[in-house]
Amino acid sequence: MRTRGHLGHTGRVQSFDDDSLRAAMRDYLSLSDRLATASSEGQSARDLVDLAESKAVAAMVLRKRLVDLGWSAPVVQRTST
Question: How far apart are CA 37 and CA 5, in angstroms?
Answer without folding.
Answer: 33
